[in-house]
Amino acid sequence: MSxxxxxxxxxxxxxxxxxxxxxxxxxxxxxxxxxxxxTIDTLKSVPELGEVLVVSRDPAALAIAREHxxxxxxxxxxxxxNVALTRATxxxxxxxxxSVLVVPADLPQLSPADLSAMLQAGKEGPAVVIAPDHHHEGxxxxxxxxxxxxxxQFGEGSFQAHSAAAATAGARLHVLELLSLSHDVDVPEDLDxxxxxxxxKGATNEVV
Length: 208
What we know:
It is a single chain. By secondary structure, the chain is α/β, with parallel strands linked by helices. Helix content is about 40%, strand content about 20%. The chain contains 7 helices and 7 strands; from the N terminus they run βαβαβαβαββαβαα. The chain has a 7-stranded mixed beta sheet with strand order 3-2-1-4-6-5-7, with helices on both faces. The longest helix has 20 residues, at about 25-45.
């Protein structure tokens, strides 16, 4: 059994535009780079994971990913997250990946223990494991076993969409409310919360 992690990454200088009221473009790019490195390093420390694949249209992000031991895939065509993830999944399948864990690069509290908990929950397939955001609207991490069991539904309302896709596929659905996976960074209020949070505080302060 070979489990691959897939990490989609927006161009470092364009991502997190909603933080523009409080961070300059240079600061946002630096934050995105730190979160990408933190994500890769955390994933590489999870013993159950075989490979980490970063997909992006940003050559700088891909270069950083390779420096930290990840495989990379250049995204092309019109920007579309679900298309990029589908293509990355196809690449993983060619290397005999049997299941995939999708983790965006904007979870500064990400912990190896919570990622292992997701993989353990979905160990017996067919299974879909979702770690929703704290609003129960988005999907902050998604484990699909076996690979290709459901189509990606990232975007507005993705938590409900992925849950429905799991039911349609006849998969066991596991929803894990994991604190280290519940808060991503999108708006200035997220930075305030994370800097005050006691959850994984050392790692959070280092990243944010």
